[in-house]
Design brief:
By secondary structure, the protein is an alpha/beta fold. It has one domain: Rossmann fold (3-Layer(aba) Sandwich). The chain has helices at about 20-45, 60-70, 85-90, 120-125, 130-150, 160-175, 185-190, 195-205, 220-235, 260-265, and strands at about 45-55, 75-80, 105-110, 150-160, 215-220, 255. A 6-stranded mixed sheet has the order 2-3-1-4-5-6, sandwiched between helices. Strand 2 (about 75-80), helix 3 and strand 3 (about 105-110) form a beta-alpha-beta unit.
Length: about 270
């Protein structure tokens, strides 16, 4: 039975709109599909790169954990880079990401990516205007080079409402098993909500394109977000033995970015 959202936000989805047994059964079926995908890309030497962006506490860690749970750790890598060093700051911005790109037969998931510059760095003042402008002017050229090189690039933005973020950040502070997730930036996340919204809207509008488009996932219901993101990812990638019946995603949860979704509040204001 679905529970009411703890966020108190009228735009938030229910905590879990499906029961636990259904969630577990659906996730199991999807994880079988993920294993099939890995077997296929290993045989074909495919290079898969998935970028996961979103506000603090949007659910990036959770979906990555479910994607990678039954995959070979030798060919599956999760990349979550920290703040750039002084040396990193003196190099070409994309340079620190290049060593982490997938080789043949590898599946790489980036928990935040070069789009840090368009979000956290812009809002928190970790980059200046010139650095931001250069990034926005060159990022699509960089991504298009990756795609032309044979990398299958998929970009997700996991979107949550303000009330839901506030509730999850409180849970981080109160839960002793989640202390490692707490960062100084968390304290500013809700205070700077509007600034992050402006940065997100600019990023999506300026970097959504046919070659490397953005897919938005509504993340207030963690279970639905995980299931639908994985379904969408599997549907986009070719592999043998695909069971399409388990890959039908909900278009109210996962959808290709369009400016109208900001205007009609499908993307949280």
């Amino acid at each position: 039975m679905a529970k009411k959202s703890t966020s108190g936000d009228p735009h938030a989805l229910t905590d879990h709109a499906i029961d636990k047994a259904t969630y577990k059964a659906d996730m199991h079926a999807l994880q079988i599909e993920l294993v099939k995908l890995q077997k296929h890309f290993l045989a074909k030497d495919d290079k898969i790169l998935v970028l996961l962006e979103g506000r603090d506490a949007a659910g990036k860690d959770g979906v990555i954990k479910r994607i990678t749970r039954h995959l070979s750790p030798r060919e599956t890598r999760v990349v979550a880079l920290g703040r750039p060093s002084d040396r990193d700051r003196s190099t070409w911005y994309f340079q620190r990401y290049i060593p982490h790109l997938p080789a043949a037969g590898e599946f790489v998931l980036m928990n935040r990516s070069w789009y840090n510059r368009a979000g956290v760095e812009r809002v928190m003042g970790f980059c200046d205007q010139a650095e931001y402008d250069e990034f926005m002017e060159t990022v699509l050229d960089f991504e298009h080079m990756l795609v032309r090189s044979g990398i299958k690039l998929v970009k997700y933005y996991i979107d949550i409402t303000k009330g839901e973020q506030k509730a999850r950040l409180k849970d981080r502070r109160d839960n002793p098993l989640k202390q490692w997730k707490i960062s100084p930036i968390d304290a500013q996340a809700t205070k700077l909500w509007d600034d992050y919204s402006v940065a997100r809207n600019d990023m999506l509008a300026r970097t959504h394109n046919p070659v490397s488009p953005w897919t938005v996932v509504r993340g207030d219901d963690k279970w639905l977000a995980r299931l639908n993101l994985i379904r969408d990812l599997l549907m986009r990638l070719d592999y043998d033995g695909k069971v399409n019946e388990v890959l039908r995603s909900n278009p109210d949860i996962v959808f290709r970015y369009d400016e109208s979704y900001i205007q009609n509040r499908m993307i949280a204001p």
